[in-house]
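Batch manifest, entry 17 of 40.
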Amino acid sequence: MSGTQFPNVPVAPGVPPVRRQALTLAGLIPALLLTDVLFGLQELFRPPWGIFTEGGNPVAIPDSFVEMEFRKDARISDYPTEQGGFESYDKVQQPYDSRVRFAVWSTAARRIEFLQAIDAAQNSLSLFIILTPEASYGSANIVHYDYRRVQQRGVNILEVDVWFTQVRITAGTQFSETKTPEGAAQQAGGQVQATTPPAGATIPNGTVDVTIESIH
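Output type: structure tokens
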């Protein structure tokens, strides 16, 4: 059967030019290899996603990160002025909240392992790091999680939503060790009430000796 290798496309105004090059196997192989190399480089330099411990270990490894939401608020304190006006004097940053949606579908054992890891992390007081391509958010604790399986999306696809809240650690506790209890520094134990000394007690140098008792 004889015929032209390419369609007869006229050269005319408004007609795009058509390349007259046959697609051969020798020309197709380098193009496919180049595509594989570019895809591999894209995966290699893909920005990381993940939930990690402060030691750098992943909390749970999903098959995909579906979406992520982040919210951070601030509160401005006001005080009243004359004629019913208000003025602002301080701005307090509130802890951030974040929600990350994971997807797991590979095997049933993997889905069970993922849910167990998330549940253990939610039960703990550990702090985690949310890593995204744009930024990382530390000091996050898991406060809530839920999951669903929707038939329209595939019965084997498990979607897990995990809520995080920032935990700010600013206060510290100081301890001092002494050889005897009498050498320990005085500590404030709450409200106190003064009591008078018992009858017959000797008060040296004309000073008043007052015993302080802590009320618990």
